[in-house]
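Homework help board

Subject: predicted structure for assignment chain

Our instructor gave us this sequence and asked us to write out the predicted structure in token form, then describe one feature. I got the tokens but I'm not sure how to describe them. Can anyone check?
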Amino acid sequence: MILPGVIGAIVIIAVLWEAFETVVLPRRVTRRLRLTVLFYRATWIPWRALAQSLRNVKRRESFLSYYGPLSLLLLFIFWAAVLVLGFGLLYYSVALPDPTHPALRTCLYLSGTTFFTLGIGDVTPHTPWERALIVIESGLGFGFLALVLSYLPVIYQAFSRREVNIVLLDARAGSPPTAGELLRRHAGPNELVELQALLRDWERWAAEILESHISYPVVSYFRSQHNNESWLGALAMMLDASALLIAAGEIPCYRQAKLTFAMCRHTVVDLAQIFSAAPRNPPKDRLPPADIERLRKVMSASGLDLPDTPEFTTKLAQLRQMYEPYLAALARHLSVDLPPWVLATEAADNWRTSAWGRISGFDPAPQATAAVDDH
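My token output:
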């Protein structure tokens, strides 16, 4: 009976190819039917639903933060279990001609002890085919261990590089980072030069996000250190700020704003495709008319006037439509709250606060106050 052997061989080849595409292949895989994709859908959707039932924001974010690292361990366990099952079916198939062939559970036990190279020896192979399978599986067991040990450092290095730039936004764009606060804190006479350099850095950062998160999509599930920060929120803020600068017209950093906008938009769109998150309209308008007026007052108080013309409003709406539906889709899939365009009330930066209190009296903006009242 060769059916168990055929099924076992198919299972082994499928898992090995899946591991190659996930860990070794440094580009996006367009094939829809994938074991890893099915694994993440089967685990992330109920995990997210359970998190959304938690009313406390800190507990919800803490619960969501466990998923990324835990899913990696569960994925490795899933791959190992399927490989053990595949080889167990092969042992069972090649042993069937023997009148004293072992039971399936014995073959699975032999497969498990061989894969993890335990060397117990209470079940031994008798035929050349069994001996060959023993050698192959034990070699794959060593290779699987090496794969795990090499994969984890890559994931955490990508996560660490991503988070460095997000933490740097605390003093530059507030917590959570917003486009209004970023432009307000870079609105002084000599600050536009630094803003242009920041936009250039974030153009490169967005490119790094695109490459790392397409090659290793699991990094997208890793949450930031603070509940009011996220890589998606940082991308949203930079897209908002770039859109404002582009719609405002010819200013010193206009060209760099266009380049940064293009790279950040490219990143958001491609990652939406990775997670099959179809673009959708945000559940509520992120920039209602009242917030536009508040944003103008914040900018005007800092010395940077936004045009109050139909051309500006139309251009800004067109730019927003190019990326906000993709942001909304990713935010829903990853259960992330997108930052507003401008803060309604003053919020303390993360660097100001600690478990023993907060500091005040220091504003990283070059001038003006931290917030403007619309009344």
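Reply (TA_rk): Your tokens look well-formed. For the description, you could write something like this. The domain at 3-151 is CATH 1.10.287 (Helix Hairpins). That's the kind of observation they're looking for.
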